[in-house]
Structures are given as C-alpha cells and as structure tokens.
Design goal:
By secondary structure, the protein is mostly beta strands. It is built from three helices and 26 strands. The protein starts with a strand and ends with a helix.
C-alpha cells in the first residue's frame, strides 16, 4: 500500500499523520523510491510516519511490515512508567504516593544529564517537578502549590498503552479533590512520544478537564499552567541560559506575560547546547497562550492570570494540547517545527 507526503518545510524526523483506508499490514516502516526507510505505525484512521526530507517535494512511500529494530517501549515499575528509546531511558511518568500530584520526568539528554530539574525534593518551589499539571485556584482550592491545606490528585495508573516503531502513547486518569477529599473534577492526560533522533524529541501532551461533579471555575491566578515545566537549574537564566518566543522577544522582561505561539528556554549542559520549546496548539482556548516564564527556571503556559479565569459548566469539558520539544543541539529550526505541528494536527 502506498501513501503520499508533501511537507510544507524541509524536515527532520517529523511525525506526519496520513489518513488512509483500512490497512491490512502490521505497519512498521515506510520506504521511499530511493530505498530510504522511515518508522511508520498504524493508528486510528491512518498511519503515522516519522519523515525526513531536504525539500518540499511530494514523496510516495510504500508501507511495509518488515522488521524494524528501532522502537519505543513502555515499562512499568512501582508507581511509575518508564519510556525507553531502543532500551535507553528517556523519561518516566511518575505517580508516587508521597507527592500530591503526578509528573513526567526527569527528561534525559543524550549525555545522561536532564533537561528538567532532577531533584524531586527541592526546597525551593518543591511542587515544580519536571513536567507537571496544576492550577492554583480551582473553585478556590490550590492545586498548584503543595502546602498542608492544598488540594491533591487521586492519581490513576497509566493505561491504554500503545508502542511500536513510530510512536508510543499512554493515558492516565486523575481526580482533583480538595484537602478533605471532596471531588472537584476529573482529568485525563495523554502522552505521545515519537521515534526521533536524539537531536530533537517531541512529547505531545493532551489534558482534558471534565466537570463531572459541579461547575468549575479556574481563577485568575499566576500559580497555574495548566502545563508547567521546571528546567534544570544548570541552564536557567540565572546560570547562563536564555529564553525567546515566536515573536522574537528575548529574556524574562520581554517574554513573561506575553502571548506567543511558542516559547523556548535554552542553555548548555555538559558544554552542549540544549533547549526546551513548548508549542501552543491553535485549537486551545484563547490561542496563542501567555507565558509564565521566569529566570529561575519555571516555564509555564498560562492564560488564566494574564487573560482572566475561565469556567467549565457541569458535565462539560475543556481540552488543552501542547507539544514539548527537547533539543540536544541547535534549536534554530523551531519556527519550522511549529508550523509543521499546527498544520499537521
């Protein structure tokens, strides 16, 4: 079976979703006319191909079920799920009973360092663990910070595992409650990782809040994301790092509180360039989001403080989608990567 891809920009290891009819193969790869092999995998209604091209010409690919050695795997441990690329640990989804909220991380660089803060018991902003989800005012309950009187999440185990040659994904359900355990809302988050080179790897995160118990009001609070990332302190701005956004703004004074399609936090680890970019999705409410990005290392997409709170009526829901890019080299092509993301989603 053949499919066609026509990228809008030259691309490297970009995931493309191609709608196609019923596929009768256990697809593992796609092969072009020159014999180049790309990871590929069946998904609902089509196929995902991790594609690379130096130009924007349309290419015909033949889907194949030949053995493909490079895969992403998911391995369960006690209170965490590990994500491995060809057996090498990339990150983990952690839901330990000792913490009030689950988190994704730390996220490892190709040298074994971490993009995100590795210390899970840091005394400064201890709730900012790697990649996390939180809102500081949910019907008046703090679910961002973690003082004694804050709310917490009843953490569900990961489920709906999918893994293969092109991508891996899983979901987790959580119940947001106040300090006494009274239920406020349900939340489902989905993570998707793609079989890309270590130069740049994506994590797509989809967060759905469901007002199953009552009307929900997210207050106009600075203590919110809903998506938050805490970068490794060794490349925060206070340690020589930098930040910029899609409009060319640089530094906290220009990026903090400003709307932008994407924002990036970068620096050096082990004397190598590295960066984290977060892409807002054009389908998110009040796109483009504002950014709560600070010199000390917090990196969060936050409309609530800068554009005002929002409400979710009982039995309704709201979904946020983001792409996290982890660069192990130059991030000069971040604008092209964002364009491909929003045209292909």
């Amino acid at each position: 079976m053949n499919i066609n891809i026509k990228p809008v920009r030259p691309c490297k290891n970009e995931p493309f979703y191609i709608e196609c009819d019923e596929i009768d193969l256990n697809v593992t790869c796609a092969i072009d006319e020159k014999g180049n092999v790309f990871p590929a995998q069946k998904t609902d209604g089509g196929v995902v191909v991790i594609f690379t091209s130096d130009n924007t010409e349309e290419v015909t690919l033949t889907l194949s079920d030949k053995e493909y050695e490079n895969v992403i795997s998911l391995e369960e441990e006690s209170e965490k799920l590990n994500i491995l690329f060809n057996g090498k640990l990339f990150s983990s989804y952690q839901y330990p009973s000792e913490f009030k909220k689950p988190f994704f991380g730390p996220v490892f660089t190709k040298t074994g360092n971490t993009f995100t803060r590795p210390d899970l018991h840091h005394k400064e902003h201890p709730h900012q663990r790697s990649v996390f989800v939180g809102v500081g005012d949910v019907n008046g309950v703090d679910l961002w910070n973690e003082p004694e009187n804050s709310g917490y999440l009843i953490k569900g185990k990961p489920k709906n595992f999918v893994n293969g040659s092109a991508f891996a994904s899983f979901e987790a359900d959580n119940i947001w409650v106040d300090k006494d355990g009274n239920k406020l809302m349900n939340e489902t988050r989905k993570f998707t990782m793609y079989n890309q080179s270590e130069d740049c790897r994506y994590v797509d995160i989809e967060i759905t809040f469901k007002a199953d118990y009552c009307d929900i009001n997210f207050g106009s609070t600075k203590e919110a994301g809903p998506l938050g990332v805490r970068v490794n302190e060794n490349f925060d701005v206070d340690h020589g790092g930098y930040m910029k956004n899609s409009y060319g703004a640089c530094g906290e004074s220009e990026c903090w509180s400003k709307s932008a399609q994407w924002c990036l936090y970068g620096g050096k680890l082990d004397n190598e360039n590295c960066a984290i970019a977060i892409f807002d999705n054009e389908k998110n409410e009040r796109f483009p989001t504002c950014w709560h990005i600070r010199n000390y290392g917090l990196f969060a997409a936050n409309n609530l403080f800068f554009k005002g709170g929002i409400s979710i009526l009982k039995d309704e829901s709201i979904t946020y989608k983001y792409r996290l890019c982890f660069f192990n080299n130059s991030a000069e092509d971040v604008s092209d990567r964002f364009l491909i993301y929003n045209l292909n989603n």
